[in-house]
Amino acid sequence: MLEAIYNFDLSVFNAVFSLHNPVLNKIMEIITTLGDEGIIWIALALVLLLFKKTRKIGASICVALVVMGLLNNEVLKPIIARARPFYAFDPSAIPLDHKYFDEVFAKATENVAKFPELAARWVSEYKFPEIVERLSSWSFPSGHTSSAFACATAVFAYNKKAGSPLMIFAAIMGFTRIYVGVHYCTDVLVGMIVGIIYGIIGYYIAAFIVKTLKKKNLKPAKLFAD
């Protein structure tokens, strides 16, 4: 099963890397960088929180990002502990100062021993494009993709017209993570699924909080439009 997943991911890398060219590389770098640390989504949430009519959406995005940060970064990534694609089958490429050197080195060594033919193909066919820096954090699921879909879903739940282009942008964001070589396709696919779940959770938690504030006639309820 694991070998089949890696073979699929390598096939996707080969297809996506064939699209590389200087102009597209720069475009993808710009788009993928927008998702660093969730800055673009935090900025969107803050803007929406400024206006009463969109404050519920802004609150939903904030909650979705918190849920994503807790579940994605503090639960899923450490538990699954999947090494980035540039280290998965090449123990010699792992720098000694890597944050998780022992774990990543052990996983890469195990992968080479278990799947020697795949390891040889991977080292031969996967070439990190050096469009962005190599990351030392765990790979699965994609945080950029998760946060993008979480926020797009939170907006879509309130306003489909505004949320639809954001969903498309979230898909593009996920694609850029494969394009720049820092995530496997399976990281991105799962990131999309869990991101949508985070967005739904954010929507319902924010709606519950606002409803509770209004029901109890508390002053903060006046901040939100009916």
Question: In brief, what are we looking at here?
Answer:
This protein is an all-alpha fold.
| Strand coverage percent | under 5%
Q: How many alpha or pi helices?
A: 9
Which residues form runs of ≥5 with pLDDT under 50? Answer: none
Q: Ends: how far apart?
A: 50 Å
Helix-strand makeup class: mainly alpha
Give the total of beta strands: 0
Radius of gyration: 20 Å
Helix content: 55-70%
Shape: elongated
Quick one: biggest sheet?
Answer: none
State the order of secondary-structure elements, H for helix, E for strand.
HHHHHHHHH
Mean pLDDT: 92
What are the key terms here?
9 helices; elongated; 226 residues; mainly alpha
Description of the molecule:
The protein has helices at 2-17, 22-34, 39-49, 55-80, 101-114, 116-125, 143-158, 160-179, 185-215. The protein is mostly helical and 226 residues long. The radius of gyration is 20 Å and the shape is elongated.
Topology:
Elements: H1 2-17, H2 22-34, H3 39-49, H4 55-80, H5 101-114, H6 116-125, H7 143-158, H8 160-179, H9 185-215
